[in-house]
Write a structure and sequence with these properties.
With 377 residues, this protein is mainly beta. 10% of the residues lie in helices and 27% in strands. The chain has five helices and 23 strands. Strands 4-5-6-12-7 form a five-stranded antiparallel sheet. A four-stranded mixed sheet has the order 10-9-8-11. A four-stranded antiparallel sheet has the order 13-14-15-22, with no helix packed on it. A hairpin with a 5-residue loop joins strand 16 and strand 17. The protein is globular and about 55 Å long.
């Protein structure tokens, strides 16, 4: 063996190249990714009440308020329009108080002239979610006019989106409370579906690439996702367990995982579909027809947390226990409990650094070049 190595030393030149193994890590700088506005949530809670935000390793650590991104930022242009400083979209400040069909709403926006702009349109469902205000009962930042006039003042407000589903027969609606992103027949002028318009290039959702190490990279918003999810356990452990699972997860060589906020969850859903709305690059554990996902964003009142349906794309508040109680149709004193099939899928920032982040996985590659092939003249 000794003579074999001596032969190699005399016959070959060895070149060692040391680099970084990215494992699907996109090499773009943080400034080159699009900004996904943060939710703006600033308080923490347990399963029922507001609490002091916990420390690392304590129960309920990893909530939305403990991870900050680009804060919601708007500018009132003084001409009936609002600029979203994160996305660049220009929004109509007021909204049409009339109850209209989708077709009437679409024509209204297409014909709107406001703020020296003529390119108004109905917002997509993803664009509506980009301005959802989780700190406001009306789900929109107070800079927007949300004053409801009679006869709809006591009703829930909904807005048409430009996101069509069901072969164009229906369209998604953004709701001020309850389940959002439901889809309604476009020919109906029912209850309280109003119109608010937007101008600017449509926001794109995530652009995904499978990294073959149980991770998926979003090269639009600089997020890395867990490819396979965690199904709920029995008995149910709830939201607290989902937070802890992501905080202690190691996948693909990375340890800085967290539970996604409600805004991030909407990047992986196809709102044009009414079933199986999760992007197909991801894997769902189990064969259940109805699958939901936890976020780390609590609703107002702290008893529920925002989640999303991978089955039909709805956004709503879930009990943090993962269990829903309903009264019997016959006896109001009798309640039935049923489990929501809420899965957990973790996320991390591609550009995050630090111990265990996986951004500095060094690898050396050895090349051996015969000496008689070097510097031939």
């Amino acid at each position: 063996m000794k003579y074999f190595f001596e032969f190699l030393k005399c016959t070959y030149t060895t070149i060692v190249v040391t680099g970084v193994m990215m494992y699907g890590q996109n090499a773009l700088a943080a400034s080159q990714y699009k900004k996904l506005p943060d939710t703006g949530q600033s308080s923490c809670s347990d399963d029922s009440v507001t609490i002091t935000c916990p420390n690392v390793g304590e129960p309920y650590y990893g909530q939305d308020a403990q991870y900050t991104g680009s804060p919601p930022a708007y500018h009132d242009n003084g001409n009936g329009t609002i600029t979203d400083k994160n996305t660049g979209l220009l929004w109509q400040k007021a909204f049409n108080n009339s109850v209209v069909t989708w077709y009437q709403a679409n024509n209204y926006c297409n014909g709107l002239s406001l703020g020296n702009r003529e390119d108004w349109r109905l917002p997509t469902m993803f664009e509506w979610e980009s301005i959802r205000d989780v700190t406001s009962p009306k789900r929109l930042n107070p800079i927007f006019d949300t004053h409801i006039q009679e006869p709809y003042v006591h009703r829930q407000v909904m807005y048409w989106s430009g996101t069509e589903v069901e072969n164009g027969a229906s369209a998604r609606v953004f709701q001020s409370a309850g389940w959002s992103n439901e889809y309604w027949d476009k020919s109906l002028a029912s209850c309280c579906v109003h119109v608010r318009c937007v101008s600017g290039a449509p926001l794109r959702q995530g652009t995904f690439r499978s990294n073959y190490n149980n991770t998926v990279s979003d090269t639009t918003y600089g997020l890395m996702w867990q490819k396979n999810d965690l199904p709920p356990s029995f008995p149910r452990k709830g939201w607290q367990h989902a937070l802890a699972y992501c905080e202690t997860l190691t996948v693909g060589g990375y340890t800085d995982w967290r539970l996604p906020n409600t805004r991030e969850l909407t990047t992986i859903i196809d709102f044009n579909k009414t079933s199986q709305t999760l992007n197909p690059v991801f894997t769902i554990s189990g064969n259940d027809e109805k699958v939901y996902y936890w976020s780390n964003t609590s609703t107002i009142g702290s008893g529920e947390v925002f989640g999303i349906s991978a089955s039909y794309g709805g956004v709503a508040g879930f009990p943090k226990t993962g269990v829903v109680y309903e009264e019997s149709a016959l006896f109001s004193s009798v309640q039935y409990a049923y489990d929501l099939n809420i899965h957990t899928r973790c996320v991390r920032d591609i550009t995050s650094q630090g111990p265990g982040s996986g951004n500095n996985n060094s690898s050396s590659i050895l090349f051996m070049i015969p000496r008689n092939m070097q510097q031939r003249k």
